[in-house]
Inverse folding.
């Protein structure tokens, strides 16, 4: 890997690049899925290549190749420089980067069991056992389960002398029960929807999820939803389960704080942000109890946004995003940090693979635990709806107006959980919603959820992000509009 | 106030001097090097020889892609990649699995072949697995354009520079992409089947921004010569200009006029509902509705990879020839598409729409073609007393799978129509709308064109004037 990096950087410098960095990445995947008692997907893949990013004549260029001969790597670096020169045809200002030291380091996330060494037969058996348990429940018309594993070995090198070797192991799994009856399709997922739980861990994560043990409950809840009461329309107090709150954080805090969006760089596709620069350290984002951080350090947990260095060689950091309700920080890169006068990047630049340009991505965007015991929170709520497990999500291109629906809900009356609610949904304006938060559960109810499917950029990149959250309560929220006629 | 209501995708036939010059120049360039069909065939033959599985299938893609991205009237990202993908499927004693690599040296080929076989040996037997196909015949499709393959970073940068200058002259800010690329593919198996395909692709998308408004346009084609960046930018610029100072109006049920890009992003969510597997699994909105009239009389829909405005190979993931399938005939759901295994389960004929095996999803129509009408968007506006003209929809997600309720937002130019005229820009709406109801409420259809959006793959769709479209809430801009 080091030879390839060296060839690329030397070629870029020789061709006139004032700065160059490279990412050599060797990525391995294993994906398994089952459906209704049969194996669906059973596949492994590997991908090895190099991406070269340069600044030449004050403009960016990037090229990537999997032709890892000396000739192939040098041609790739030369193409990056040629592309940068073409970028100069439509350039307003020279690219300028916030300063960063050079680092030589090696890091690997800790894990107990290498999932690629666990026999695939055992992994299939576990999914089929959970599938069987779900289909035992009368009324289940579709049962699914999946596991995915990623191993990423990467080398970052820069023309300023950084040489950073990182190895990451990622695991995830989940199950889904679906039921069609009476012109209605209902669905329950465990431990989360859209692929389950994913973390920077080994196979020990899968074993800790207790998929088989939870399968009957998931299936029973799914069938019961058909006869549950429809979510009412109106304004209500709502309590969000931790995984749903994780996605709420992702969409209405994580994306709007991306500084490239704020500065207009994503205007054509992902959109912009309501969090213009004038709002930094001035906007009351949420209520006084709301504290949110962007934390890529291992101390925060083994999240999908955990690493030692980002993909432009900046060490992992913890940035306060919302402090006692006040908006206090963005996600930044070396280029965007400089653009708003910050001394240093927040270290949040990441790329999906060797053939993708690194860009600002969420790390672990987490809400700090509050002080409430979960049972006390329920007991303290007179008339509310508890909503759990995301079913759909949507937010406007400046991240103001959102609508979420969840798989299941429960009515809370007089401090007790009552009847089941189907098709729960809620909507609102980001800052109004977060300012209505009046209770957050404590550390013992806090989970670092993994979102493995965050899309951004052109060409689009899929990235895993982490979101620590515990159940929280919000007052006077509009509910039920998704199904209103 | 007047707004050019022509959808951006219809602007492609304007011939501007810039594009004419570019086309001539591009035709004269030497082609870039990409793996030749002969080279791919040689690697495929090598893989098949290395395998000792009962049956073996190999898929190889060699791709080059480049994308120039601009924002704030400057190029801020400019990328290119070359990548190969070699994927092997092994069948061992009624079991099948897949392994993929991007390395083509002999040792890697041996490893990927061994890996596919090893995975297959360690799973239960698959009762639905069918023998691999013998050699097939395919109808030819021509989707490779040398001018697209020859496009250089300088070509894209010059076009972008022109658009940025246009924005500066109009005191607007431009953001978007100009992309081009090509792929060579081969699918071969140990029964002698060989299928090859080559395609180019080009795409231009632009957003023009003002202080409190924006406009958008996008086009996508295998032939870069049909894409006119200046015309698309002008269309986006006019929308931004005409939606200045948007006012807030009450959400509710309105007549909506959706250009093809907006229609595409909605109806694209229906594509998997036409899969035989989706109906078998009871997760399709057409479960229990096949043969019934569930959509309007004016809705007829095909899957047709051979349509001149479509793209993609003429064979499916197993190498079976794709059939043209009538999915909806005047509102009646007539047919589904089937992979070979699904067809056997459902006692139907395979239609050549299967995904690469193994997978749990079966198949899907990937080349949707709606029958259009002959009403222009301008005529639709003139025929509307009060309604909403949309430019683009965004962040669309499924709320209810059986009534097919989708939610999402309008974006980049939303206009109020009053008394047959566009009276100005309005703040963006959230919608919650059943697709079944929407396609039962279509009052007018425009000509079907190749449209490009963000939420769905490209397809051939018309603009639609729709009664009673449910805009449920309004945002702050």
């Amino acid at each position: 890997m080091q030879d390839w990096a060296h060839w690329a950087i030397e070629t870029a410098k020789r061709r006139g690049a004032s700065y160059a960095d490279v990412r050599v990445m060797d990525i391995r995947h294993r994906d398994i899925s089952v459906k209704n008692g049969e194996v669906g997907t059973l596949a492994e893949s590997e991908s090895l290549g190099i991406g070269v990013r340069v600044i030449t004549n004050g403009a960016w260029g990037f090229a990537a190749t999997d032709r890892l001969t000396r000739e192939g790597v040098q041609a790739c670096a030369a193409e990056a420089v040629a592309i940068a020169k073409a970028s100069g045809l439509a350039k307003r200002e020279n690219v300028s980067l916030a300063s960063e030291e050079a680092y030589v380091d090696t890091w690997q996330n800790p894990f107990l069991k290498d999932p690629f060494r666990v026999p695939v037969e055992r992994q299939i058996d576990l999914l089929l056992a959970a599938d069987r348990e779900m289909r035992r429940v009368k009324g289940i018309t579709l049962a699914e389960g999946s596991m995915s594993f990623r191993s990423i070995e990467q080398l970052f090198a820069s023309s300023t002398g950084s040489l950073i070797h990182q190895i990451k192991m990622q695991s995830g799994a989940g199950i889904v029960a679906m039921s069609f009856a009476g012109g209605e399709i209902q669905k329950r997922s465990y431990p989360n929807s859209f692929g389950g739980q994913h973390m920077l861990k080994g196979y020990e994560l899968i074993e800790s999820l207790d998929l088989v043990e939870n399968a009957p409950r998931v299936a029973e809840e799914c069938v019961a939803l058909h006869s549950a009461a429809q979510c009412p329309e109106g304004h209500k107090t709502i309590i969000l389960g931790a995984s749903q709150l994780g996605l709420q954080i992702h969409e209405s805090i994580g994306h709007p704080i991306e500084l490239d969006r704020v500065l207009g760089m994503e205007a054509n596709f992902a959109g912009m942000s309501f969090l213009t620069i004038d709002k930094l350290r001035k906007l009351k984002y949420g209520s006084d109890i709301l504290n949110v951080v962007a934390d890529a350090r291992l101390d925060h947990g083994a999240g999908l946004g955990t690493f030692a260095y980002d993909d432009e060689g900046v060490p992992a950091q913890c940035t306060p995003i919302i402090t006692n309700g006040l908006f206090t920080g963005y996600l930044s890169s070396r280029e965007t940090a400089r653009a708003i006068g910050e001394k240093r990047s927040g270290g949040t630049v990441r790329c999906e693979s060797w053939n993708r340009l690194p860009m600002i991505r969420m790390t672990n965007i987490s809400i700090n635990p509050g002080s409430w015991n979960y049972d006390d929170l329920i007991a303290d709520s007179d008339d509310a709806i508890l909503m759990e497990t995301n079913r759909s999500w949507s937010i406007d291109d400046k991240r103001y107006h959102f609508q979420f629906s969840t798989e299941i809900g429960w009515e809370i009356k007089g401090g007790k959980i009552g009847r089941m609610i189907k098709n729960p949904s809620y909507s609102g304006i980001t800052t109004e919603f977060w300012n209505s938060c009046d209770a957050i559960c404590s550390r013992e109810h806090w989970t670092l959820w993994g979102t493995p499917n965050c899309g951004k950029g052109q060409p689009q990149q899929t990235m895993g992000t982490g979101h620590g959250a515990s159940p929280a309560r919000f007052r006077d929220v509009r509910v039920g509009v998704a199904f209103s006629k | 106030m007047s707004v050019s209501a022509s959808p951006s995708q219809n602007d492609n036939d304007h011939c501007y001097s810039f594009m004419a010059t570019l086309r001539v120049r591009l035709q004269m360039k030497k082609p870039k090097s990409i793996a030749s069909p002969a080279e791919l065939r040689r690697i495929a033959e090598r893989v098949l020889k290395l395998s000792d599985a009962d049956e073996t299938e190999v898929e190889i893609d060699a791709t080059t892609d480049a994308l120039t991205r601009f924002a704030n009237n400057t190029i801020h990202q400019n990328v290119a990649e070359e990548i190969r993908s070699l994927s092997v499927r092994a069948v061992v004693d009624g079991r099948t699995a897949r392994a993929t690599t991007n390395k083509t040296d002999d040792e890697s080929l041996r490893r990927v072949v061994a890996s596919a076989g090893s995975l297959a040996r360690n799973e239960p037997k698959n009762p639905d697995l069918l023998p691999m196909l013998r050699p097939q015949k395919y109808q030819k499709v021509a989707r490779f354009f040398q001018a697209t393959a020859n496009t250089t970073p300088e070509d894209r940068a010059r076009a972008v520079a022109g658009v940025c200058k246009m924005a500066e002259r109009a005191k607007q800010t431009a953001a978007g992409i100009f992309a081009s690329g090509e792929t060579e593919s081969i699918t071969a198996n140990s029964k002698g089947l060989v299928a090859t395909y080559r395609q180019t692709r080009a795409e231009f998308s632009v957003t023009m921004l003002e202080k409190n408004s924006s406009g958008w346009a996008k086009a996508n084609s295998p032939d870069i010569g049909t894409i006119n960046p200046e015309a698309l930018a002008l269309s986006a610029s006019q929308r931004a200009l005409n939606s200045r100072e948007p006012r807030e109006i009450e959400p509710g049920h309105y007549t909506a006029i959706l250009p093809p890009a907006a229609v595409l992003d909605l109806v694209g969510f229906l594509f998997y509902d036409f899969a035989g597997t989706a109906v078998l699994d009871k997760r399709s909105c057409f479960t229990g509705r096949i043969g019934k009239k569930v959509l309007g009389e004016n809705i007829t829909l095909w899957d047709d990879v051979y349509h001149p405005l479509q793209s993609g190979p003429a064979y499916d993931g197993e190498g079976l020839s794709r059939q043209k399938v009538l999915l909806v005939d005047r509102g009646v759901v007539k047919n589904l598409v089937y992979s070979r295994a699904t067809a056997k389960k459902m006692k139907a004929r395979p239609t050549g729409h299967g995904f690469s095996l193994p997978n749990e999803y079966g198949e899907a129509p990937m080349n949707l073609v709606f029958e259009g009408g002959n009403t222009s968007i301008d005529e639709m506006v003139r025929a509307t007393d009060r309604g909403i003209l949309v430019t683009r929809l965004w962040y669309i997600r499924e709320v209810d799978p059986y009534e097919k309720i989708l939610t999402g937002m309008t974006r980049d130019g939303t206009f109020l129509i009053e008394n047959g005229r566009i009276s100005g820009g309005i703040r963006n709406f959230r919608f919650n709308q059943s697709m079944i109801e929407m396609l039962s409420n279509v009052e007018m259809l425009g000509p079907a064109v190749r449209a490009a959006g963000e939420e769905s793959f490209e397809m051939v769709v018309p603009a639609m004037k729709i009664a009673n479209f449910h805009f449920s809430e309004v945002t702050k801009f």
